[in-house]
Amino acid sequence: MKLLYFCPHQIWPANTGARLRDYELARQLAARASVTFVQMCRAGQEPYTLPEDSGFADVATLDKDRTYTPFKILRGLAGPTPMTVLNCWSLRAASQLANVLRAGQFDTIQMEGVHLLKYLPILQQAPGFPAIVMDWHNIESELMWRYSETTSNWAKKIVAKRTAKLIERAEDRLLKICGTHTVTSERERQKLLARYPIPDIRVIPNGVDAHAYTSKRIAESSGKCGQGNSKPTILFVGSMDYHANIDAATWFSRQVWPEIARAHPELVFTIVGRDPSPEVLGLVSDRIRVTGTVDDIRPFFASAVAVIVPIRYGSGTRYKILEAMAAGVPVISTRLGAEGIEVKDGVHLLLADSKSEIAAAVGRLLNSPGTRKRFSQAARALMFKAYDWPIIGAHLYGIHAELAARRVSSPRSD
Predict the structure, then answer these.
(1) Fold observed for domain 210-387
(2) pLDDT tens readout for residues 384-407
(3) Edge-first strand listing for the sheet containing 108-112
(4) Is the pLDDT of residue 226 over 80?
(5) pLDDT score at 295
(6) What is the overall mean pLDDT for the chain?
(7) Is CATH 3.40.50.2000 what the domain over 2-207+389-409 is classified as, yes or no?
(8) Which CB contacts under 8 angstroms, 24+ apart, belong to 11-16?
């Protein structure tokens, strides 16, 4: 089977949630089929060389135009096409994509996200009319609606609401046009079906390389790079240029951490993630560390007594929770932060939304080694059972194989 995997960004390095999902899903498919990976680069950006073990039959890079130009911003706000879709579109990229499709004769195509909406007609008219799987990393309109409800900046609130409405319309078009969709959780599946009940929507969750987070592998990585901290740590992990993570880290640091720091003077709060914003860098103190980009997150799990996920808005599921659970580090998360992951409060993690609830959860973990061990064992078992990438990849391949077989038995004719 020949498959084309199309995403709106570079796939490597896999240092964001979107890149990690694309890389791991495409790599799992490449272990079972011939995969041509199509990525997009910003104007003037050179693509990175992919790891040799990625397994792709071919990699094609399309050229984006400049993003967030004044014209695109005005046009995006005016509609009907949202700015996020305009940022991914260029005539040159469309021509390049058409050439890749003509050369490939693909059985199926996986399209990553609503941002690629304007390329859908080109994919639909590809030689042989390959079946298309639309993969949703999250529900983008939901993310933007939630942001509009959280921000206190009135100008950003207006822009966010307008953008959310336009993205929602674009998503509705995808639901009507594409027959097969994959989402990261059952919650998102039900939410999309409530909007449009006709499509075939399957759950392909985000995953983790569970074997890479064993205590042995963590110790090895700590020894190699020496990035760990000997002091017990409350850990926050995420891309620190992403607004939901910025909000979570700053809110926790200012509203919750002072109480925890007073009660537990041995603790340090460590924020790990690429490109920290000025607001995040301003949090640094003698007991709040901001690392910026790191080559390997695992050494920081060695000294972590808990991973905190105080997310207040956003969508999709969080790798920070999956990685912490695979590493055996107890997780304290808001309910929104953990949504979409099949976990039970008090079994796999602790759910806490308010300042007092979070502080109490930290105290509970610190005061009971037995509780920490119980959460660690239950969470790790769940990661190996349901969230290991090979398990997820096999499920996704089954969807593509089913569509390819259906296409052969019922060829399209015009």
Answers:
(1) Rossmann fold (3.40.50)
(2) 999 999 999 999 999 999 999 987
(3) 58-63, 34-41, 2-6, 108-112, 131-135, 180-183, 200-203
(4) no
(5) 85
(6) 91
(7) yes
(8) 11/37, 11/39, 11/50, 12/48, 12/49, 12/50, 12/51, 13/48, 15/239, 15/274, 15/293, 16/239, 16/274
